[in-house]
Amino acid sequence: EFNKIKTGMTYEEVCAIIGGEGTLISSVDMGIGTEYKTEIYQWTGHGSLGANANVTFQGGKVISKAQFGLK
């Protein structure tokens, strides 16, 4: 699932791949337009203890992703 997430995808597209909504862990809004709003969502995963994936969205699109301990 993690490898299917690509730059430019929307939150809804990522949720469809993972099969559920993530937890919003950070949000920054510069107040000068939605293209400058940055949000980081986290999904817990299967694998080692604490396995998770974090996906960063800016302007509603994926700009980066990271994972820890996923199988």
Compile the SSE list and pairings.
Elements: H1 11-18, E1 23-29, E2 37-44, E3 47-58, E4 61-70
Antiparallel strand pairs: 1-2, 2-3, 3-4
What does this entry look like structurally?
The protein has one helix at 11-18, and strands at 23-29, 37-44, 47-58, 61-70. The protein has 71 residues and is mainly beta. A four-stranded antiparallel beta sheet has the order 1-2-3-4, with no helix packed on it. The protein is globular and about 40 Å long. 10% of the residues are buried. The model has no long low-confidence stretch (mean pLDDT 94).
In short:
Helix content is 11%, strand content 52%.
Strand order of the largest sheet: 1-2-3-4
Q: Based on the structure, what is the oligomeric state of the protein chains?
A: single chain
| Unreliable residue runs | none
Strand content: over 45%
- Count of individual beta strands: 4
Query: Count of helical segments?
Result: 1
Q: Mean pLDDT score, rounded?
A: 94
Radius of gyration: 12 Å
Structural class: mainly beta
Morphology: globular
Order of helices and strands: HEEEE
- Biggest sheet, in brief? 4 strands, antiparallel
End-to-end separation: 10 Å
Q: Specify the helix fraction band.
A: 10-25%
Any descriptors?
globular, 1 helix, mainly beta, 71 residues
